[in-house]
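We were asked to recover a plausible sequence for a given structure. The inputs and outputs are reproduced exactly as logged, with field labels preserved.

PROBLEM: sequence recovery
POSITIONS: 475
GIVEN STRUCTURE:
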């Protein structure tokens, strides 16, 4: 079937502009701004992107913080859907993308999308990677301080250089140095140098790495980056979805249940026994952000609690491995051992197969994705949505209307799937809603609609009936 493409644009949003501390960047002024300023943070965005809209007030606040603190930071934004030359030059493929341009270097920002985190990142990257503590009084101030702090104690210049190089690339800690003589006085219990003292607000409050520590330093930082058994934070959420060798082990439970404390004690035994740079051990509820963001993404409901899962990022997909037994430390240890031995199968969720499915939009679930979408000779237009997504809710009636208009095409199937309740192996969805066409003659290479999500684009049938759909497409 040859489909002739036309566009029906239904505008869903309007954008208004007011005076802003954020600089508007274009293809014309971008290079001049970067070359003439030492520190420039750039937000590459799309006006229709919900995540960009959510970030906008935080980004504005970060720019105002820079002005208030007399910093020379520039925070700019570039509409990547209009200023395409610059966006393509820097390989922007998703929104928002945040990059820090600093004296010829480009550093991707992938931390928490808050004003405080953005400002702290720029401040850290534009400052020396370490600060020297010259007296015991200065060290005592750090001991009483807050946050994650590392103090290098030693006089070996080569080891100090290694420490500074690592500090330059790690964003989660503040790094300090001091001499061996001052360090000995501040920490008399130390007897091997060089050494690193790590100070934090959780668990044992202080950790020490001494002796020939250089090879172990990066792992040491990862082990102590988060509490032994922590809560889901935005920072951890971002890390879970990054390509990494570190996996998340999560106890999902209701914090208000009578069994919550007993469950956490058993889970903490596992965390203490297997504490390493390989895993994050976390507890999560379903009630508040960012915990709710994680449970929504996974399609978890409170009725499934308590449950323990291992979450592993793998080439853009989040693989899940579910413990099926009781939440007892002995069973959880065996579960982790079996996972490491490759004996645990990936957990794939699916809604029940619908008893009736004869509407204009076919409901697809995990168990029927192969038969309804892949293993047939029809063109399939698929809407991937999330139940909680506001944009999806606005799109559903429009999508249904489209299905009604095109129901006369017998070789075209229009379908949808709730991606938070159904796992579709090999089909990674990065945002909602997403629309893809699976042409009959190339199901392994679906076409993703990449136009403005504030508009609905669809096709009209042509009298020609040649195999090979070209829909959907953007001009």
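RECOVERED SEQUENCE:
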């Amino acid at each position: 079937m040859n489909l002739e493409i036309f566009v029906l644009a239904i505008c869903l949003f309007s954008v208004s502009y007011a005076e802003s501390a954020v600089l508007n960047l274009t293809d014309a002024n971008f290079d001049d701004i970067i070359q003439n300023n030492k520190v420039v943070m750039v937000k590459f965005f799309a006006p229709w992107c919900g995540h960009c809209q959510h970030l906008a007030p935080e980004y504005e606040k970060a720019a105002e913080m820079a002005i208030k603190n007399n910093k020379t930071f520039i925070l700019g934004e570039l509409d990547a859907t209009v200023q395409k030359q610059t966006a393509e030059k820097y390989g922007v493929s998703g929104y928002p993308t945040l990059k820090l341009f600093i004296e010829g270097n480009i550093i991707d920002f992938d931390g928490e999308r808050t004003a405080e985190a953005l400002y702290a990142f720029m401040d850290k990257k534009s400052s020396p990677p370490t600060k020297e503590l010259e007296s015991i009084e200065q060290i005592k101030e750090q001991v009483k301080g807050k946050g994650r702090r590392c103090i290098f104690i030693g006089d070996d210049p080569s080891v100090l250089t290694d420490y500074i190089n690592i500090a330059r690339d790690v964003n989660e800690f503040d790094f300090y140095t001091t001499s061996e003589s001052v360090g000995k006085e501040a920490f008399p219990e130390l007897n091997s140098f060089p050494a690193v003292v790590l100070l934090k607000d959780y668990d044992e409050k202080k950790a020490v790495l001494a002796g020939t520590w250089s090879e172990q330093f990066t792992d040491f930082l990862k082990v102590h980056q988060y509490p032994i058994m922590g809560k889901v934070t935005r920072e951890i959420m971002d890390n879970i979805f990054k390509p990494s060798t570190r996996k998340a082990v999560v106890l999902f439970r209701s914090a208000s249940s009578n069994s919550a404390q007993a469950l956490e004690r058993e889970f903490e035994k596992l965390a203490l026994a297997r504490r390493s740079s390989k895993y994050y051990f976390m507890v999560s509820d379903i009630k508040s952000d960012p915990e709710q963001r994680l449970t929504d993404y996974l399609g978890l409901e409170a009725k499934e609690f308590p449950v323990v899962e291992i979450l592993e990022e793998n080439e853009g997909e989040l693989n899940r491995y579910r413990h099926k037994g009781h939440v007892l430390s002995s069973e959880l240890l065996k579960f982790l051992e079996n996972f490491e031995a490759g004996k645990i199968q990936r957990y794939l969720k699916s809604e029940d197969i619908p008893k009736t499915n004869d509407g204009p939009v076919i409901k697809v679930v995990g168990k029927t994705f192969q038969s309804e979408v892949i293993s047939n000779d029809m063109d399939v237009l698929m809407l991937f949505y999330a139940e909680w997504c506001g944009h999806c809710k606005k799109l559903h009636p429009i999508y249904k209307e489209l299905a009604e208009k095109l129901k006369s095409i017998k070789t075209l199937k229009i379908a949808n799937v709730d991606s938070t309740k159904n796992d579709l192996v090999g089909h990674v969805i990065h945002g909602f809603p997403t629309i893809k066409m699976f042409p009959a003659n190339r199901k392994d290479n679906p076409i993703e609609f990449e136009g403005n999500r504030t508009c609905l684009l669809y096709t009209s049938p042509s009298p020609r009936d040649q195999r090979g759909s070209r829909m959907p497409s953007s001009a």
